[in-house]
Design goal:
Chain lengths: 236, 690, 95, 95
């Protein structure tokens, strides 16, 4: 299986994702410059965190127009796996891969800390190694993580199980106090209808080693690998 | 330029902050009168900020040699060996004056500048720390500055993807109209890839890489060399605005240029922009540089040679390329989408020659600009306040005779309430800071402890560091708030580095020599408390007006105290920064030495955090327990209880200090310790509560 | 011909505006009791060459729809005026 | 009386506007070759009660100077119009 990490001008977590996948998981991975338009040979594309184009105008507002994004659209439409982390999620929203948009955090301050997440949907390539409603720990680091969509879109999203993670307390309780940025329904991660494009605000690549405070992020990458090898095995 | 056009009443050199003696020296060097552009170049390079003309004679006292020191003071940053392959690069810089005028941009450009100093050594920036000092947070202006500076550091540091992992925040009336913002950056470089900021090969192409040049911050350097007066608002030069996105592109571009071996030398365009970068790189190599201003990309029209040479526009680097690699250098810059202009060549005449097309606008010896500032022989006079302060006895001021009951109470205080008051400026969505009802009936010393724990200087700083991305780059092994120093693992080496920034203005005010020694010792204790061996320091020396005898009396003693402590604790000085004129309307700040220290943990698994780990563990206090030299003079406890900063501060015995630190380090290295925490503000009681 | 376009991008009424409510709170705290509602958006000034005013308007509309605003959470309005020789353009503050 | 104030806060001409230059670059990359300059600031809509229009103008000016803008790096201009019964206010997009 081969991962591809897109590098936009201003991406910061591209090297962290590369390290997590190659050095910790031992998988094949390559960087993809944002002007590349041919994604053949890749099985999972990652849009990493960071401040693409300085987050000027709106987070992800300029990066979505990079040449690579057309190729990512075709790749996703063809069933390829796409994972957008933090700024990557914001780019997927601006580019219309996923419904909704990000507003500034309710406290109007950048937030960097570990949070608890409850797994809402483990029937997809990104969380198939997690238990239903399992509570995990991952770090967040963002200024605009306040997910918003109009009520009609949210109802449809919830109805089809499109919410993958919610901000919770250590026992899985969902309440305003466990919501760091004000996102509607404590939503922390959203998947598309086809189930192959995931956008998430927490950073899995930052918790792949106990040394740095947690390993729950590692299981997300392992889910992708196991799903991919399972699928290839079954030939679905 | 200003002087020439208006019929100036005062001589031009006075207007640019030079003395008559300095002007005569310039005329002698040139063998003629300088023109306006040349005079501007000298005025900036010979300003206190760039030349250290007041502090240079004293800084010679610092020990700078050591087995691990690869590059000491004199280059853009110090370089310390980590192992046979890797080296650590570090430096700190002060941005006090710009922050007083515009806190967000002042702090942001402070981060940008110090990051480029690390980049100039060919190193990847891996950590940022900041040491901040404001007036009390209940004063609206101080709160505005505090919030602005923190969000400026966060806004810039987070965007360039360098984690802000540590530092300190102090609040005291002395800094109300003169905030201090010292920023430290640390980088990693492979030893065979270290870049030197030297224009060593004649004929090499000279590039300006990064943003275009505007009228930003002209006289930023001289502005930093003047006291902020009543009209500092009006005399404000164009404030410098940072572009972190451009900085990120500059980081990746420069590292790739070094990686590909296209570069001979790199220098940040800090204070005095093109003038300082060209003069210093040429002076270090004994060569010259000739540039053509027509090749410099400009952001504003009609800029004079004076303005172009003195502009302090941000996010610009001077890159001395290898001859024949001009196209490859331009290609790397094009791919990263960053500006790149070939503005000149290295020459062998030792001159900095500035042309516009064929007209020579300035021609000045590079060494004269960079190294030959006439050093100022300062007079020192012992301030009268010293004897007054030492005559007061803190314990009697506190009206309490400490006895067994005190120790018993303090021990039990830890159980009643952890006192997790948050250091949050009012108007923030946090609990109000009123004293809850049930505290009234607590024993006196328990109430005192809770008061100390809620004093802004001691209180929990999560409100600050949660705004910093302190995890990016996947190296932060001990997170902010969890240890006495930040600890970053170094991938592929099994080792880790410990980083801290520490200073104490009150001790240095009350007893400068002791204050200087304590600042170094305090930083070393924090490093040792994470299981790391202290190896080297950088520093920021924040002082009032050097033209006053008291200031230089304080300065000479602080430096002497620091030098002695560095000698005994084995932490040589690898460079740093001096910031004078921290004084507004005659009201000076405390003399404030801030020490940035590096420690090395040989096995990352032996790193320590500062919290208790397991019930039943033994709690031990290491150090002189006979009370020798102990004192509540200048303590936070005294300030919290009486509002006074007075008395003779604690007298440190550096030999005992070294033995205490060695003991803690050996215990950590032999796996005896779960955690360690240094006693500082608020003493043993606060340490136990934390 | 040189034109100056001023594009006003505001958060939709139905969407929470964290910045607006924070500024409202600050104004009330400072004694401006009369303040009832605050909403904060962007004011984007674009100087551009275009063959005609209508061509300029079409271009600005397309830019505003495609990149300068996010239709999920924002709405925009714009004005385009020719830039007279002095470089002055109404709508934008001194160029 | 209810009024709607629109305060336009822009970066001073002499101060670098990194956001403006980044958006200009993006517009050029997207083929809008005619774009010569972009500057981005804030558009603040304030709904307020005030005894008279002149009173409202005075209040808005003070708020703009003290809180809504940073005089060191920004400049502002504003307009105040009465809010008719329908809650509509020209200048501000549909309230």
């Amino acid at each position: 299986m081969k991962f591809g990490i897109v590098v936009f001008p201003g991406s910061n977590c591209d090297q962290d994702c590369y390290y997590a996948i190659r050095d910790i998981l031992g998988c094949d991975v390559d960087y993809i410059w944002h002007t590349v338009t041919d994604l053949r040979g890749f099985d999972c594309i990652i849009l990493p965190g960071g401040f693409s184009y300085g987050d000027y105008l709106r987070t992800g507002a300029i990066a979505r127009f990079s040449p690579v994004m057309k190729a990512v659209k075709d790749f996703a439409d063809g069933g390829g796996l796409v994972l957008g982390i933090c700024n990557g999620f914001q780019i997927l929203l601006e580019a219309g891969f996923l419904p909704g948009a990000m507003l500034r955090n309710k406290g109007l301050r950048f937030l960097c800390k570990y949070v608890h997440l409850r797994v809402e949907n483990n029937k997809n390539p990104f969380t198939c190694l997690f238990e239903e409603h399992e509570v995990i720990r991952m770090p967040i680091a963002h200024f605009d993580g306040n997910y918003y969509a109009d009520s009609r879109t949210i109802e449809a999203l919830e109805a089809r199980g499109g919410v993958v993670f919610r901000y919770s307390d250590e026992k899985g309780g969902i309440a305003p106090e466990t919501n760091p940025n004000g996102s509607v329904g404590n939503i922390a991660a959203v998947i598309n209808e086809a189930g192959n494009v995931l956008g998430m605000m927490p950073h899995p690549e930052r918790c792949v080693e106990e040394l740095l405070g947690g390993e729950d992020g590692r299981r997300l990458f392992e889910s992708i690998v196991s799903w991919f090898s399972g699928r290839r095995g079954v030939g679905s | 330029g200003r002087g020439q056009e208006q019929g100036q009443s005062r001589p031009s050199w006075w207007e640019l902050g030079l003395t008559e003696a300095e002007y005569r020296e310039i005329v002698e060097i040139l063998g003629r009168e300088p023109n306006w552009t040349e005079l501007g170049m000298f005025s900036v390079m010979w300003s206190e900020h760039c030349s250290y003309k007041h502090s240079r004679p004293y800084l010679k006292l610092f020990p700078t040699q050591g087995s691990r020191i690869l590059i000491g003071p004199g280059e853009n940053a110090g370089v310390i060996r980590l192992d046979e392959r890797w080296a650590v690069v570090m430096k700190c810089e002060s941005h006090n004056h710009p922050v007083a005028v515009e806190p967000y941009q002042g702090a942001a450009t402070g981060v940008g500048g110090i990051v480029r100093d690390i980049l100039a050594m060919g190193a990847r920036p891996v950590a940022i720390l900041d040491s901040l000092r404001f007036g009390p947070p209940d004063d609206p202006r101080s709160r505005f500055l505090f919030q602005g500076v923190v969000s400026g550091i966060a806004g810039y540091g987070n965007c360039i993807g360098v984690p802000t992992v540590g530092g300190e925040v102090y609040f005291d009336e002395a800094y109300a109209s003169n905030p201090l913002c010292n920023v430290m950056c640390v980088g990693l470089v492979e030893i065979d890839r270290i870049a030197r900021a030297r224009a060593s090969e004649v004929g090499s192409p000279v590039f300006l890489v990064g943003a275009s040049t505007g009228r930003d911050g002209i006289h930023g350097a001289t502005f930093a060399s003047q006291e902020l007066g009543e009209d500092s608002e009006a005399s404000r030069p164009n404030v410098q605005v940072g572009d972190p996105f451009m900085e990120k592109l500059a980081i990746e571009t420069c590292l790739e240029l070094v990686e590909r071996g296209y570069v001979i030398g790199i220098q940040d365009m800090g204070a005095a922009g093109i003038t300082s970068s060209c003069a210093e790189t040429a002076a270090r190599a004994g060569t010259g540089i000739e540039i053509d201003l027509d090749k410099v990309p400009l952001r504003e029209s009609g800029m004079t040679p004076y303005e172009i040479m003195l502009s302090e526009s941000q996010e610009r680097m001077l890159v001395i390329g290898k001859s024949g690699r001009e196209n490859e250098i331009a290609e790397v810059c094009r791919r990263w989408g960053i500006g790149c202009a070939l503005i000149g060549r290295v020459t062998d005449d030792g001159m900095l020659t500035v042309k516009r097309g064929e007209i020579i606008e300035a021609r000045v010896p590079a060494k004269a600009l960079a190294e030959q500032v006439p050093v100022v022989l300062s007079r020192e006079s012992r301030p009268s306040y010293i004897d007054e302060e030492w005559s007061r006895d803190p314990v009697s001021l506190l009206g309490a005779k400490p006895g067994p009951s005190l120790l018993a109470e303090l021990a039990s205080a830890g159980k009643t309430r952890s006192g997790k008051a948050r250091c949050e400026p009012e108007g923030e969505p946090g609990e109000p800071e009123k004293e809850p009802e049930e505290e009234k009936d607590l024993p006196r010393f328990s109430r005192d402890l809770l008061k100390c724990l809620s004093s802004p200087t001691i209180a929990d700083k999560a409100w600050v560091y949660s705004q910093y991305d302190h995890m990016v780059q996947n190296n932060t092994a001990v997170l902010p708030g969890a240890g006495d120093a930040a600890v970053l693992r170094v991938k592929g080496t099994g080792k880790a580095i410990a980083l801290t920034m520490d200073g104490n203005g009150r001790y240095a005010y009350l007893d400068p020599e002791m204050g200087g020694a304590i600042a170094v010792a305090e930083a070393a204790r924090n490093v040792v408390s994470t299981g790391a061996e202290p190896v080297a320091i950088t520093n920021c020396l924040n002082f009032p007006n050097p033209e006053k005898g008291e200031t230089m009396w304080q300065f000479s003693r602080v430096v002497r105290g620091m030098a002695l402590a560095c000698e005994i604790l084995g932490t040589p000085v690898t460079g740093g920064n001096v910031s004078f004129y921290n004084e507004t309307l005659g009201k000076p700040v405390y003399p404030t030495p801030v020490v940035g220290m590096l420690g090395i943990i040989h096995d990352v698994k032996q790193r320590l955090s500062s919290g208790f780990v397991r019930e039943g563990d033994i709690v031990a206090l290491i150090g002189p327990l006979d009370g020798r030299g102990a004192s509540l003079g200048g303590s936070e406890y005294l300030k919290v209880k009486t509002g006074l900063v007075t008395g003779k501060p604690p007298q440190i015995d550096l030999d005992v200090e070294k033995r205490v630190q060695r003991t803690c380090l050996r215990a950590a290295q032999s796996g005896l310790l779960h955690s360690a925490h240094d006693c500082s503000e608020g003493g043993l009681a606060v340490t136990l509560a934390e | 011909m040189r034109y100056v376009a001023t594009v006003k991008v505001m958060p939709k009424k139905t969407v929470l505006d964290p910045q607006g409510s924070a500024v409202k709170g600050a104004l009330l705290d400072l004694g401006y009791g009369g303040v009832k509602d605050v909403r904060i958006g962007k004011n984007i000034r674009v100087e551009m060459e275009a063959p005609s005013k209508s061509a300029a308007r079409a271009l600005v509309e397309e830019m505003a729809r495609k990149i300068l605003s996010n239709p999920v959470i924002e709405e925009f309005e714009f004005a385009v005026i020719p830039m007279d020789s002095s470089g002055e353009g109404a709508g934008g503050i001194a160029p």
